[in-house]
Structures are given as structure tokens and as C-alpha cells.
Amino acid sequence: MKKSVYSLVLMDSVIKAVDEQAYKLGTSRSNLINQILAEHLCCVTPEMRMREIFDSVTELISESFQIQQQGSASLMTIKASLAYKYRPAVNYKVELQREPDIFIGQLRVQIRTQNQSLINLFNNFFVWRMQMEKYCLAEKNYNIYSGELYSGNFSRKLLNNSGGKTGEAIGEYIRHLNKSMQLYFSSPVDFPENLIENEYRKILEDYII
């Protein structure tokens, strides 16, 4: 979204109040003034769009996940624990782009453990998951899957093709991803690959993310 430089004459007391609020919100004076004017004049800013997306994600997953407080309008951190010994924590971080192109943002997943056996399970699961997602998206003629995996960390870019349902798409994707991780960690040998793949295909009927 294009920005230009303009000169405004404002009261010192107004600027003081703006600066105090901008500091609390972790943003700049210009950005806060831009948001205030946009909301008053019913214009949509990137911050408003991202907040709407994150509100939709929260509505879908808040019962099963812990939503962490963030200082950035573009970042959402979600916490879950695996039904496995020691109940290791898994963090999901969604970072949205201010100006989306073919991707609306990125999802990062990290397992919080130093246990190498758990890290190996995590890595093995996502090797399978990446192949499955890439294959299913290719069936829909989307050949731009972008995912990366390194020790205990997975990331993938989120496709910008869900229309006005981006928040729903991200929420459903995270719920399905977490469910499939839980099943894999509970029994890697009996992991129902076909079931999970079919469920993912059903998600792709409604959302491409």
C-alpha cells in the first residue's frame, strides 16, 4: 500500500498523547496517526486487515490452543502441547505480509525440546507432511509450495488464495496440522497417512492456503 509524506500542524498535547499511545502499542507516531484516521474514515489499513485475519484464527482455535500476546500487528503466536511423554510444547507462529503477493505470509512451527528422539520424530513427520502437501496442491495446479525443515523447526509460506476467508483457512490448517502431529507422535508406526491426506484434500476444497 503506497505511502507519501505530508505535513500536518497538530497541537503539542495531541502529539504527546499520540506518542505515548504509539509507545504502548510498539508502533511509530506516523503509523498510529495513519491507523486512527483510517478507522475514522472507514479506510482499510494493513494493520486492520491483519487484525481481522487474526481475530478469525482466534475464534476458530482458542478452545484448543493458547494464544500468546504479541507486540507486533503482523505476528501471532499459538502454543499447544503434544500428547506425548513430558508433553513437549509446540509453537505455531503466523507472520503476515503487509503487502501480500502470491503469498499472504508464513507459518513457522517449532518443538520446544532438547530431546533428540522427539526432534527426530518431528523431523520425520514434517518430511512426510511436506511431500503430502506439495503433492495435493499440485493436484490443484498449485506448483509453488514453499516449505523448509531443519532440526525441530518447520516453516512454509501461506498461499494468498482464500479470498475473504484467510483467517478461517489459516485456523483450519493449523487445527489439522496439530491433529496430524498428535496422531503421529502417539503412534508413528500406525499413523493413518491416508486419513490425514484425505482430510487435507477436503480443506483444499474450501481453502487454498
Report on this structure.
The chain has six helices and six strands; from the N terminus they run H-H-H-E-E-E-E-H-E-E-H-H. The chain is α+β, with helices and mostly antiparallel strands and 209 residues long. It has two domains: 9-43; 46-206. A six-stranded antiparallel β-sheet has the order 1-2-3-4-6-5, covered by helices on one side. It starts with 11 loop residues before the first helix and ends with a helix.
Provide a short characterization of the protein structure.
The protein has helices at residues 12-25, 29-40, 46-61, 116-139, 166-186, 193-206, and strands at residues 66-68, 75-81, 89-96, 103-112, 147-150, 153-159.
Give the count of helical stretches.
6
Q: What number of structural domains do the residues give?
A: 2
Query: Structural class, please?
Result: alpha+beta
Strand content: 15-25%
Shape: elongated
Mean pLDDT: 89
User: Termini distance?
Assistant: 22 Å
In the predicted model, the low-confidence regions spanning at least 5 consecutive residues are none
User: Which radius of gyration do the C-alpha atoms yield?
Assistant: 20 Å
